[in-house]
Amino acid sequence: MNTKEYIESGILESYVLGVATAGESAEVERLALEYPAIRQELDAIRNSLETYALQYEKQPPAFLKDKIMDNLFNEHKTVEQKYSKGINQTVKEDIEPREVINLNQRNESSASQRSIFKMAASWVLLALSIGANIWFFKNWKNSEEKVLALESQNQILAKEGQTLKASYQEELAILQNPDVKIIKLSGQEVAPEAKALVYFDKTKQEVYLSALSLPEVPTGKQYQLWAIVDGKPVDAGMIDSKGNILKMKSFSNAVAFAISLENTGGSTTEAGPKGAVYVMGAV
Amino acid sequence: MSKRKTIIAEDALVVLLQSKDQRGFSILYDNYSSALYGVILKIVRSEEIAADVMQDSFVKIWKNIDGYNRSKGTLFTWILNVARNTAIDRIRSQEFQNSQRNQDIDSNINVIDNQENSQFDVDAIGLKKVVENLRPEHQQMIELLYFKGYTQAEVADEFGIPLGTVKTRVKAAIVQLRQFFVQFGLVLLSAILDKWI
Predict the structure, then answer these.
(1) Is the ipTM of this complex over 0.95?
(2) Which residue of A has its CA nearest to B144?
(3) Per residue in B13-45, pLDDT tens?
(4) Would the CA dihedral through B131, B135, B138, B140 be positive or negative?
(5) Which one of B38, B58, B181 has the shortest CB-CB distance to A57?
(6) For chain A, where are the E strands, in sequence order?
(7) Which CATH architecture has domain B121-197?
(8) Per residue in A154-181, pLDDT tens?
(9) Which interval of the chain is the signal sequence (chain B) (predicted)?
(10) What is the third-level CATH fold of B1-119?
């Protein structure tokens, strides 16, 4: 459609002045929604007429506001007014405020029902909310404990991993050293299945013990390594742990190594091994 | 103009009014009563009747606010139309016309002149002069249609002008008004801001 022509036709002015027919008004409202140009034109016409009307603005008498607000909101005053005004009052004036008040009362009673319902609903929601909060708090506590446990476990694993890595690196370095001689200690009569390895670095005079496979140590007992030097066993150190690789005492001229089971603390070189020899091997 | 203007978003005010909230009607009254009262008084030309029409208008606003939406223009446009139509209905009612007939015509005219003079309180910004510069036939059109509730056909009948001419004049009158108000828009805006804030 041609909006310009429509605007020129003067129908918008008629509409704003309130002199358009019902059909025309409906058309204007529909077209205003559809065409921004018509909407803008309508606004401009309204503005100019309203500005024109505002020239006449005048403060109403002071009593009027209370009278109007009472009429709308205060039932009793309206009833009093109605009776004091007597029979001269027009039917229209009489009916309108009462309708308004009925509307008001209906609103109030349904409003109070609504507010009771709202209050009940609020309590239910509050109870549900508290329950949910307790449940969530418990779950949260549980989770926190689990997380702490997992964290410490994780730390232990990490430490163990590091230790293992370090000992393997150490062992690897020893094995890759061409100066190191690997001596296999084989099981003796008391434990034919037992075995162990000694890494012997003659130049650095270092002795390492590895791959221990010995029977479980009875309480009060401890394994002890001996080096055979000049035909005599010399204390080479106590075996404290089942670590991957243990550094023992230094020797440069041992010919053989052996492990015996001694009382805790071990025996001395002077006394010699007192318990049974479990494994033994020559350099 | 009221000293107690409440600044409130129009949408929020409409919600208050539609829920029949007393605060909404109080704000509506404070913000718009002088505009509504001025237009009503301009139409009915009696303070007593104007107060009565104001009351009727507020009852109508109360009853019909649910039917208001933005497609009908701003809230001010809508309530102004309610007030205007209520006032026009009153002057067209039999009761009103009977009471007017009893008054002396000359004194009536004097009263009207005095009222109109006192109502031009935006004179300070020079708007009055501009509006007076509207061509008389244009001013007459706006007076008859906007303030007396004539239809265009009634104006044509009463003044012996073809309906087409009435429509052209109405159009031209509003175009002229718009030109004035664009011209004076800034002055007017600053005056309104000065008054309202």
Answers:
(1) no
(2) A17
(3) 999 999 998 889 999 999 999 999 999 998 998
(4) positive
(5) B38
(6) 180-187, 195-201, 206-213, 221-229, 232-238, 245-247, 256-263, 277-282
(7) Orthogonal Bundle (1.10)
(8) 999 998 888 888 878 888 888 888 888 8
(9) none
(10) Rna Polymerase Sigma Factor; Chain: A (1.10.1740)
